[in-house]
Amino acid sequence: MNRGARIALVALGAVVAGVLVAVYVVGYLLATPPTTSAASSGAGTASLTMQTVAAFGSGDKPDWVSYLVQDPQGNWQHTTYFKVPANSQIDVTIYQYDTATGLRNPFLAQVRGTVGNTATLNGKTIQSIGQDQPAHTFSVPDLGISIPLQGVEDDAKNQCSAAPCDTSMAHTTIKFSFRTGAPGTYRWQCFVPCAAGNLLGNGGPMSTLGYMGGFLYVV
After folding, report:
1. Distances (CA, A) of 29 to 24, 60, 68, 110, 199
2. How far apart are CA 51 and CA 175, in angstroms?
3. CATH superfamily ID and name for 35-218
4. In tens digits, what is the pLDDT along the chain, a chain of 219 residues?
5. All structural domains of the chain with their residue ranges
6. The whole model's pTM is what?
7. Which pairing describes strands 213-218 and 81-84: parallel, antiparallel, or unpaired?
């Protein structure tokens, strides 16, 4: 092979590598889930309804644990990017379908940052739950918000195996309200290490936007 042909092959390889890098950056690093808006429920209030599931059940990561959110039309969306109004009360309902994993830090077993620093679990007012009881948390550190989500029993009947789940299946219902202030963007995250098969339970869905963490846009 002459020198010109070798140079052409090297140049072609560089072009192919550049294209692959661009595809990776655009398709993976810069890809973001869609944003779902909270439903307006009156002047100065909005509502946000979510569910957590043990396995999403489809797509390229069917066995990953995940959050879903309900759009204002009542359809379940696989996203963790939420838009809520500024200077408002946000009433949140979370249907929690996963079994308990437990916490490594008992601080996260307490309800914090909500109206009254309380939540309701299946209709009962709570300020905390046992350290071994959460399946997940909904935590927005920059807003001081953190709510433990109690898991269903390991032997509960009619457990959900794929999203979206419905309320005829084994679940717990957690409700709480919090107030937003000025507009801003806030990262939220589950802090239960629930990624089975990943180092210390913190890889996979725990570190992937769209599954166990996302952004709260206050607008």
Report:
1. 7, 16, 21, 34, 22
2. 12
3. Cupredoxins -  blue copper proteins (2.60.40.420)
4. 666 655 655 555 554 444 444 343 334 445 688 999 999 988 899 999 999 999 999 999 999 999 999 999 999 999 999 999 999 999 999 999 999 999 989 999 999 999 999 999 999 999 999 999 999 999 999 999 999 999 999 999 999 999 999 999 999 999 999 999 999 999 999 999 988 878 788 899 999 999 999 999 999
5. 1-31, 35-218
6. 0.85
7. parallel
